[in-house]
Amino acid sequence: AYVSAETPTEKQTIGATWLVERLIVLLWALMKVELPPPNKQADPVLFMDLVPPFSNDSASDFLRTAVRRSEDELLEMAEELLQFHWRARDAELHSRPMPADVDPEIIQERHHAINWIVGYGGLAWDEITTDT
Questions:
Q1: Which one-letter DSSP state was computed for residue 42?
Q2: Using CA atoms, how far apart are residues 16 and 24, in angstroms rounded to an integer?
Q3: What is the pLDDT of residues 30-69, one digit of tens each?
Q4: How far is 55 from 51, CA to CA, in rounded Å?
Q5: CA-based torsion, 23, 24, 25, 28: positive or negative
Q6: Residue 7: alpha-carbon gap to chain centroid
Q7: How far apart are CA 108 and CA 111, in angstroms?
Q8: What whole-number distance in Å separates Cα of residue 132 and Cα of residue 129?
Q9: pTM score, two decimals?
Q10: What angle do CA 54, 116, 25 make, to 5 degrees?
């Protein structure tokens, strides 16, 4: 809805911004990008260069060149994102300063995406949880 809207609403813009953090993990899993640090938002302009129909590549070229990371790499990233998310939640729960190296909103979105990729609980995309 955001991409096809002539004038996206503020709510659509905010939602799309956070979905970028999920999409960056999907592209990372396909070896298309490196993940930004967990306290730095992904640049949405990056997707214009990589993701059809915005990029110059066709969908078939995109899929042909996608290489899924190994199960070990994916599980390692799932654990890393879980730990970052735990540190953020722990700070919130105990009214401590947020660790400087993590943004809780960024990490929650990335945690969601990696959990889906590794098949966390066998849940569908919209049902994935980010338990810590």
A1: -
A2: 12
A3: 999 999 999 999 988 888 888 888 788 888 999 999 999 9
A4: 5
A5: positive
A6: 25
A7: 5
A8: 9
A9: 0.89
A10: 45
Picking from 100, 89, 93, the residue whose alpha carbon sits closest to that of residue 130 is 89
At 31, the amino acid letter reads M
Give the C-alpha separation, 109 to 1, whole Å.
19
| Displacement of CA 10 from its chain's centroid (Å) | 21
Distance CA 23, CA 109 (A): 9
Neighbours of 9 (CB within 10 A): 11
Instruction: Identify which of 97, 60, 82 has the alpha carbon closest to the alpha carbon of residue 131.
Output: 82
Give the model confidence (pLDDT) of 60-73 as tens digits: 999 999 999 999 99
At residue 35, what is the residue type?
Answer: L
